[in-house]
Task: structure prediction
Amino acid sequence: MPHRRFSFRMVLPVLVTVVALALAGCQFSYTSYTIDCMSLVVYGLTAKATVANFDSDFDGIADSAEFTLTATDGAGNTLIPPLPPGTFLVPVSMPFGPGDVGVPFINPPQYNPITVTVTMPSNSFLASDVLIASFIGQCPGLPAWVDGLGDGRINRFDMAAPVAVYPFTFEGGVGLRFYQIDAGGHGALILEVTPEQIAAVANPPAANTLIASTSDGAVALYRLTTGEFQMNAGSYVIVFSELDSGAAYYTPAG
Ligand SMILES: [Ca+2]
Result:
Protein backbone atom coordinates (compact mmCIF):
# COMPACT_ATOMS: atom_id res chain seq x y z
CA MET A 1 0.00 0.00 0.00
CA PRO A 2 1.44 3.40 -0.93
CA HIS A 3 1.77 5.86 1.89
CA ARG A 4 1.64 9.47 0.85
CA ARG A 5 2.39 12.63 2.68
CA PHE A 6 -0.42 14.94 3.55
CA SER A 7 -0.77 17.94 1.27
CA PHE A 8 -3.35 20.67 0.86
CA ARG A 9 -3.83 19.82 -2.82
CA MET A 10 -5.01 16.36 -1.90
CA VAL A 11 -7.59 17.70 0.52
CA LEU A 12 -9.34 19.90 -2.05
CA PRO A 13 -11.31 17.18 -3.88
CA VAL A 14 -12.77 15.79 -0.72
CA LEU A 15 -16.45 16.47 -0.19
CA VAL A 16 -16.82 14.88 3.19
CA THR A 17 -13.91 15.11 5.55
CA VAL A 18 -13.42 14.04 9.11
CA VAL A 19 -15.68 11.29 10.30
CA ALA A 20 -15.19 8.88 13.13
CA LEU A 21 -17.28 5.79 13.41
CA ALA A 22 -17.60 3.35 16.23
CA LEU A 23 -19.97 0.73 14.94
CA ALA A 24 -20.89 -2.72 16.04
CA GLY A 25 -18.04 -4.99 15.14
CA CYS A 26 -15.23 -2.48 15.09
CA GLN A 27 -14.05 0.78 16.56
CA PHE A 28 -12.90 2.60 13.44
CA SER A 29 -11.62 6.15 13.35
CA TYR A 30 -9.37 8.38 11.27
CA THR A 31 -8.29 11.99 11.18
CA SER A 32 -8.80 12.75 7.46
CA TYR A 33 -8.87 11.21 4.01
CA THR A 34 -8.41 12.14 0.39
CA ILE A 35 -9.90 10.75 -2.79
CA ASP A 36 -8.55 11.66 -6.21
CA CYS A 37 -8.45 9.98 -9.64
CA MET A 38 -5.89 7.43 -8.47
CA SER A 39 -6.65 6.34 -4.93
CA LEU A 40 -8.19 6.72 -1.51
CA VAL A 41 -5.77 7.61 1.27
CA VAL A 42 -6.94 7.45 4.89
CA TYR A 43 -4.79 9.26 7.43
CA GLY A 44 -4.46 8.46 11.09
CA LEU A 45 -6.49 5.29 10.82
CA THR A 46 -7.08 3.23 13.91
CA ALA A 47 -9.19 0.09 14.01
CA LYS A 48 -9.98 -2.12 16.96
CA ALA A 49 -12.07 -5.18 16.39
CA THR A 50 -14.83 -5.99 18.84
CA VAL A 51 -16.27 -8.83 16.77
CA ALA A 52 -14.29 -11.54 14.99
CA ASN A 53 -15.30 -12.88 11.59
CA PHE A 54 -12.04 -14.48 10.43
CA ASP A 55 -10.15 -17.55 11.62
CA SER A 56 -6.54 -16.73 10.83
CA ASP A 57 -4.99 -19.83 12.41
CA PHE A 58 -7.55 -22.37 11.22
CA ASP A 59 -8.50 -23.63 14.67
CA GLY A 60 -12.19 -23.15 13.96
CA ILE A 61 -12.45 -20.12 16.24
CA ALA A 62 -12.69 -16.65 14.75
CA ASP A 63 -9.92 -14.44 16.11
CA SER A 64 -9.72 -11.44 13.78
CA ALA A 65 -11.87 -8.84 12.10
CA GLU A 66 -11.76 -9.08 8.34
CA PHE A 67 -12.54 -5.97 6.31
CA THR A 68 -13.32 -5.71 2.66
CA LEU A 69 -13.50 -2.73 0.36
CA THR A 70 -15.67 -1.68 -2.53
CA ALA A 71 -14.87 1.30 -4.70
CA THR A 72 -17.22 2.52 -7.40
CA ASP A 73 -17.50 5.59 -9.60
CA GLY A 74 -20.66 7.60 -10.18
CA ALA A 75 -21.89 5.19 -12.82
CA GLY A 76 -21.34 2.20 -10.55
CA ASN A 77 -18.19 1.03 -12.34
CA THR A 78 -15.97 -1.05 -10.05
CA LEU A 79 -12.62 0.61 -9.38
CA ILE A 80 -11.00 -2.26 -7.50
CA PRO A 81 -11.61 -5.96 -8.13
CA PRO A 82 -12.91 -8.11 -5.27
CA LEU A 83 -10.19 -8.64 -2.66
CA PRO A 84 -9.05 -12.14 -1.65
CA PRO A 85 -10.28 -13.22 1.79
CA GLY A 86 -8.00 -12.06 4.58
CA THR A 87 -6.54 -9.07 2.70
CA PHE A 88 -7.32 -6.67 5.56
CA LEU A 89 -7.26 -8.24 9.02
CA VAL A 90 -7.20 -6.79 12.51
CA PRO A 91 -6.61 -9.42 15.22
CA VAL A 92 -9.03 -8.90 18.09
CA SER A 93 -6.14 -8.77 20.54
CA MET A 94 -4.07 -6.33 18.42
CA PRO A 95 -5.57 -2.96 17.45
CA PHE A 96 -4.32 -1.43 14.19
CA GLY A 97 -2.78 1.99 13.95
CA PRO A 98 -2.74 4.85 14.02
CA GLY A 99 -1.39 4.72 10.48
CA ASP A 100 -2.00 5.92 6.94
CA VAL A 101 -3.53 3.51 4.45
CA GLY A 102 -3.65 4.01 0.68
CA VAL A 103 -5.98 2.11 -1.62
CA PRO A 104 -5.08 2.48 -5.32
CA PHE A 105 -7.85 2.29 -7.90
CA ILE A 106 -7.10 -0.49 -10.38
CA ASN A 107 -9.68 0.72 -12.90
CA PRO A 108 -9.74 4.48 -13.51
CA PRO A 109 -13.01 6.20 -12.59
CA GLN A 110 -15.11 7.61 -15.43
CA TYR A 111 -17.75 9.55 -13.52
CA ASN A 112 -18.02 11.39 -10.22
CA PRO A 113 -18.60 10.90 -7.39
CA ILE A 114 -16.29 8.14 -6.21
CA THR A 115 -17.50 6.08 -3.26
CA VAL A 116 -15.38 3.69 -1.21
CA THR A 117 -16.99 1.56 1.48
CA VAL A 118 -15.38 -0.56 4.18
CA THR A 119 -17.39 -3.48 5.48
CA MET A 120 -16.94 -6.56 7.58
CA PRO A 121 -18.26 -9.22 5.19
CA SER A 122 -20.78 -11.77 6.37
CA ASN A 123 -19.63 -15.36 6.59
CA SER A 124 -20.04 -18.37 8.89
CA PHE A 125 -18.93 -16.19 11.83
CA LEU A 126 -20.97 -13.09 10.98
CA ALA A 127 -24.64 -13.19 10.00
CA SER A 128 -24.72 -10.10 7.80
CA ASP A 129 -22.40 -7.50 6.32
CA VAL A 130 -21.50 -4.68 8.72
CA LEU A 131 -20.82 -1.29 7.17
CA ILE A 132 -17.82 0.25 8.91
CA ALA A 133 -17.20 3.44 6.92
CA SER A 134 -17.85 5.07 3.60
CA PHE A 135 -15.72 7.68 1.85
CA ILE A 136 -16.94 9.97 -0.94
CA GLY A 137 -14.82 12.18 -3.16
CA GLN A 138 -14.17 13.48 -6.64
CA CYS A 139 -11.76 12.97 -9.50
CA PRO A 140 -11.31 16.55 -10.78
CA GLY A 141 -12.37 16.96 -14.40
CA LEU A 142 -14.68 13.97 -14.64
CA PRO A 143 -18.37 14.47 -15.44
CA ALA A 144 -20.93 13.81 -12.76
CA TRP A 145 -23.24 10.89 -13.35
CA VAL A 146 -26.81 12.12 -13.74
CA ASP A 147 -29.33 9.83 -12.15
CA GLY A 148 -32.29 9.05 -14.34
CA LEU A 149 -30.56 9.49 -17.67
CA GLY A 150 -27.98 6.79 -17.02
CA ASP A 151 -29.80 4.41 -19.30
CA GLY A 152 -27.13 4.11 -21.97
CA ARG A 153 -27.96 7.21 -23.99
CA ILE A 154 -25.06 9.27 -25.29
CA ASN A 155 -26.59 12.66 -24.37
CA ARG A 156 -26.94 11.58 -20.74
CA PHE A 157 -26.40 14.98 -19.11
CA ASP A 158 -29.21 16.86 -20.84
CA MET A 159 -32.35 16.55 -18.76
CA ALA A 160 -34.44 18.56 -21.22
CA ALA A 161 -33.15 17.09 -24.50
CA PRO A 162 -35.98 16.56 -27.02
CA VAL A 163 -34.20 13.55 -28.52
CA ALA A 164 -32.25 10.76 -26.80
CA VAL A 165 -29.43 9.13 -28.79
CA TYR A 166 -28.52 5.52 -28.05
CA PRO A 167 -25.79 3.32 -29.48
CA PHE A 168 -27.48 0.19 -30.79
CA THR A 169 -25.92 -3.07 -31.93
CA PHE A 170 -27.29 -4.14 -35.29
CA GLU A 171 -26.38 -7.34 -37.13
CA GLY A 172 -23.57 -5.55 -38.95
CA GLY A 173 -22.16 -3.67 -35.96
CA VAL A 174 -22.94 -0.63 -33.87
CA GLY A 175 -25.26 2.10 -35.12
CA LEU A 176 -27.60 4.56 -33.47
CA ARG A 177 -31.21 4.83 -32.44
CA PHE A 178 -32.95 8.16 -31.88
CA TYR A 179 -35.96 8.54 -29.61
CA GLN A 180 -38.22 11.59 -29.48
CA ILE A 181 -38.89 12.44 -25.84
CA ASP A 182 -42.38 13.75 -25.06
CA ALA A 183 -43.38 16.06 -22.21
CA GLY A 184 -43.99 13.06 -19.97
CA GLY A 185 -40.47 11.77 -20.53
CA HIS A 186 -41.53 8.87 -22.74
CA GLY A 187 -39.53 8.02 -25.83
CA ALA A 188 -40.68 7.05 -29.31
CA LEU A 189 -38.27 5.58 -31.84
CA ILE A 190 -38.06 8.04 -34.72
CA LEU A 191 -34.83 7.11 -36.52
CA GLU A 192 -32.44 4.21 -36.83
CA VAL A 193 -29.00 4.59 -38.38
CA THR A 194 -27.28 1.35 -39.28
CA PRO A 195 -23.53 0.77 -39.34
CA GLU A 196 -23.84 0.34 -43.11
CA GLN A 197 -25.34 3.84 -43.44
CA ILE A 198 -22.53 5.23 -41.30
CA ALA A 199 -19.87 3.39 -43.31
CA ALA A 200 -21.36 4.70 -46.58
CA VAL A 201 -20.05 8.18 -45.73
CA ALA A 202 -16.30 8.72 -45.85
CA ASN A 203 -14.55 9.23 -42.52
CA PRO A 204 -13.72 12.02 -42.53
CA PRO A 205 -15.73 13.40 -45.45
CA ALA A 206 -14.47 16.30 -47.55
CA ALA A 207 -17.48 18.34 -46.41
CA ASN A 208 -19.97 17.87 -43.60
CA THR A 209 -22.27 15.14 -44.94
CA LEU A 210 -25.77 13.96 -44.07
CA ILE A 211 -25.81 10.29 -43.03
CA ALA A 212 -29.53 9.93 -42.35
CA SER A 213 -32.56 11.88 -41.20
CA THR A 214 -36.18 11.43 -40.30
CA SER A 215 -38.52 11.69 -43.30
CA ASP A 216 -39.49 15.22 -42.31
CA GLY A 217 -35.86 16.17 -41.80
CA ALA A 218 -36.51 17.32 -38.24
CA VAL A 219 -33.81 15.06 -36.80
CA ALA A 220 -30.64 14.50 -38.80
CA LEU A 221 -27.26 12.87 -38.30
CA TYR A 222 -24.19 14.24 -40.06
CA ARG A 223 -20.56 13.20 -40.35
CA LEU A 224 -18.35 16.24 -39.90
CA THR A 225 -15.02 16.87 -41.59
CA THR A 226 -13.45 16.31 -38.16
CA GLY A 227 -14.72 12.72 -38.19
CA GLU A 228 -17.22 13.56 -35.45
CA PHE A 229 -20.95 12.94 -35.63
CA GLN A 230 -23.45 15.76 -35.28
CA MET A 231 -27.14 15.37 -34.51
CA ASN A 232 -29.47 18.25 -35.30
CA ALA A 233 -32.89 18.18 -33.66
CA GLY A 234 -34.22 21.68 -34.21
CA SER A 235 -32.30 24.00 -31.91
CA TYR A 236 -30.86 21.05 -29.98
CA VAL A 237 -27.52 20.08 -31.50
CA ILE A 238 -24.86 17.75 -30.15
CA VAL A 239 -21.50 16.60 -31.49
CA PHE A 240 -19.93 13.31 -30.42
CA SER A 241 -17.06 11.20 -31.66
CA GLU A 242 -17.92 7.66 -30.63
CA LEU A 243 -20.86 5.28 -30.91
CA ASP A 244 -20.66 4.59 -27.21
CA SER A 245 -22.87 5.47 -24.24
CA GLY A 246 -19.78 6.81 -22.46
CA ALA A 247 -18.78 9.04 -25.38
CA ALA A 248 -17.91 12.63 -24.69
CA TYR A 249 -20.25 15.07 -26.41
CA TYR A 250 -20.82 18.78 -26.59
CA THR A 251 -23.06 21.44 -28.01
CA PRO A 252 -21.23 23.37 -30.73
CA ALA A 253 -20.87 27.11 -30.28
CA GLY A 254 -23.10 29.35 -32.35
CA1 LIG B 1 -8.62 -18.97 15.22
